[in-house]
Amino acid sequence: MINLDKKSYILSFSLLISLLSLSKLLYYGPSNIESYSEDIYTSIKFFHSLFGNGSVFWNGQMGLGAPAPNIPSLIYHPLFLFSSLLSIKTILFIFWIFHQTLASFFFIKICKSLNINNVFSIIACLLFVFSSPTINYS
Fold first, then answer.
1. Closest Cα to residue 135, out of 94, 93, 106, 100?
2. Cα–chain-centroid distance for residue 43?
3. DSSP H or E segment with residue 66
4. Taking each helix axis from N to C terminus, what angle separates 88-113 and 118-129, rounded to the nearest 10 degrees?
5. DSSP-derived secondary structure letter, 74
6. Can you give the pTM of this predicted structure?
7. Predicted pLDDT of residue 3
8. Average pLDDT over residues 111-115
9. CA 124/CA 110 separation, integer angstroms
10. 52-78 as b/e, with b when 16 or more CB fall inside 10 Å?
11. 3-state class of 64 per DSSP?
């Protein structure tokens, strides 16, 4: 059985579970086109204009026009500052893996602080990671 007494073990297990749960998303990409057009596209446009020539506050390429970037936006996440150096696909992979690993790590830590044993902590973490809102969010 997995020993969850050290932080390194918990972090390794969280990373493994994150990669397992996000494997379809990392291979095929996001399936939610609405989220892509609202969040990711406007964030890409914002950062390209920010590092290029000024900033864009109105996007005329979406319908009759929309404010850019849309809120909630990914431009407030520090990873997106590297959009001029890395591809957006790489940044999103890091973003998804980081958030899922962090969530599962602290979910196990909460279970441990509630004195739940290792088996039930793992089961609770798996239920959290593979729950519908978590999968739909990512």
1. 100
2. 15
3. strand 66-67
4. 140
5. G
6. 0.71
7. 62
8. 90
9. 10
10. eeeebeebeebeeeeebbbeebbbeee
11. coil
